[in-house]
Amino acid sequence: MFDRDDELNKLRTGLGYPVTLLLGIRRSGKSSLIKVLMSEEKDVIWIYLDLRKYEGYAYITYKHLLNEFERALNTWPKFLRELLRGIRGGVIISGSGFEIKLSWSKDRVELADLFDKLSSISEREGRRIVIVFDESQELRKLKGFNILYPLAYAYDNLKLSFIFTGSQIGMVYRFLRLKDPSSPLFGRAMFEVRVNPFTREQSIEFLRTGFREVGISVSNNLLESVYDELGGIPGWLTYYGFNYLQFGDHEEAIKRTLEYAVQLIRQEFENFLRGGREEARERYYA
Ligand SMILES: Nc1ncnc2c1ncn2[C@@H]1O[C@H](COP(=O)(O)OP(=O)(O)O)[C@@H](O)[C@H]1O
Ligand SMILES: [Mg+2]
């Protein structure tokens, strides 16, 4: 991890609050920060939910959400998984592998009950439990279930912490509806951490460090022009470096990075439109 000490320290502070928002545009390094935090804070029991995979979906369901929890809980060590026994509505712990299954049809597991259980595990173990919703704005597409109620319940009553990351910053606010008096989360304070693109100096140092790691020396001019073309988003600088390594050519590496970036941004924009209401779409497009 290059730099980002401030952001990491803020995130650590955030672990002491019920909710932290980690906001920054795509490829700014949010997931990387979370992964570093997870690997450093071994005392925390982590539940990491990757919602990015639902980006292309028109909507997601309660089943998808429970599936994500199921996947995350199954990464826990066995002695912790065993403690999940006894949640109302069917936690099945099957076979000698102690695999967790959360039932979602009849007798479905209610999120509030799961949160209750997690909170009591946290108290019993004397360890904080942190639930990460990575790319949380995807949850705005959740149909037939309002996740804000169990979240508000947990915020007010339980000993759990949440981290919501988001690339579409406005969408995260809109999903949480903090300023809407009819929202369950209305007025709740949240700790906010922003991940900004690197400055010019940081970007150049980042590239130089990366090239040094692979034993390539490059001129200042080259690094300057990479920043001029791509700006300071770490993901694109990294992608440029990766292409430069492959092709050994600046122009080619820039070209490939831009092509890929444009494709990705187009896809993201389409996804953004998909999340909007029919009548708003035309306006968003404009
Ligand atoms: N501080 C950093 N140090 C080194 N590499 C980074 C850093 N931040 C981002 N990257 C690189 O950029 C890529 C995109 O970052 P990522 O964490 O996936 O962004 P986000 O989750 O915000 O979309 C990562 O895979 C990693 O290669
Ligand atoms: Mg990410």
Strand elements, count: 7
Bound small-molecule species: adenosine-5'-diphosphate, magnesium ion
What distance lies between the first and last C-alpha atoms, to the nearest angstrom? 38 Å
Low-confidence stretches: none
Shape: globular
Can you give a write-up of this model?
The protein has 2 domains: 5-194, P-loop containing nucleotide triphosphate hydrolases (Rossmann fold, 3-Layer(aba) Sandwich), CATH 3.40.50.300; 200-271, Helicase, Ruva Protein, domain 3 (Orthogonal Bundle), CATH 1.10.8.60. The strands form 2 sheets. A 5-stranded parallel sheet has the order 2-5-6-1-7, sandwiched between helices. It has a two-stranded antiparallel sheet with strand order 3-4. The relative contact order is 0.15. The two termini are 38 Å apart. A hairpin with a 4-residue loop joins strand 3 (91-94) and strand 4 (99-102). The chain is α/β, with parallel strands linked by helices and 286 residues long. It has 12 helices and 7 strands. Helix 5 packs parallel to helix 6 (148-157), helix 8 packs across helix 9 and helix 9 (220-230) runs parallel beside helix 11. It binds adenosine-5'-diphosphate and magnesium ion. Adenosine-5'-diphosphate binds at residues 1-4, 24, 26-32, 167, 234-235, 238. Adenosine-5'-diphosphate is lined by residues 1-4, 24, 26-32, 167, 234-235, 238.
